[in-house]
């Protein structure tokens, strides 16, 4: 969180998982298995995975506050996700936190 972030501000996250050679299907299954636990967490507005090029899976997340995202990061659903994906990736997921810049229509200009 930067000094301009508010702990109650909505935050969007992109997490990029790169599958180890021959492990893409297992990684996909592990992530699918972990999702229900995250969806049950307070503050989770969106938590979805997408196939991407180069043996990658992108996870798109939206949390109702930075504080709830931080709690997610140290919670049991993330621990379970890490356990399920152990040995299935080339390294740690790349996690990018983003703050929304509303633009355009309310329905289309904000994730």
What is the compact description of this entry?
The protein has 3 helices and 4 strands; from the N terminus they run E-H-E-E-H-H-E.
Description:
By secondary structure, the chain is of the alpha+beta class. It is built from three helices and four strands; from the N terminus they run βαββααβ. Strands 2-3-1-4 form a four-stranded antiparallel beta sheet. Helix 1 packs antiparallel against helix 3. The longest helix is centred in the N-terminal third of the chain and has 16 residues. The two termini are 19 Å apart.
Give the SSE layout.
Elements: E1 11-18, H1 24-39, E2 44-52, E3 56-63, H2 66-73, H3 76-85, E4 94-98
Antiparallel strand pairs: 1-3, 1-4, 2-3
Largest sheet: 4 strands, antiparallel
The tally of domains stands at 1
Mean of all residue-level pLDDT scores: 92
Supply the helix-strand structural class.
alpha+beta
**What ranges have pLDDT less than 50 throughout 5 or more consecutive residues?**
none
Order of helices and strands: EHEEHHE
Could you name the CATH class? Alpha Beta
Strand content: 25-35%
The strand order across the widest sheet is 2-3-1-4
Q: What's the number of helices?
A: 3
Task: Give me some keywords for this one.
111 residues, alpha+beta, 3 helices, globular
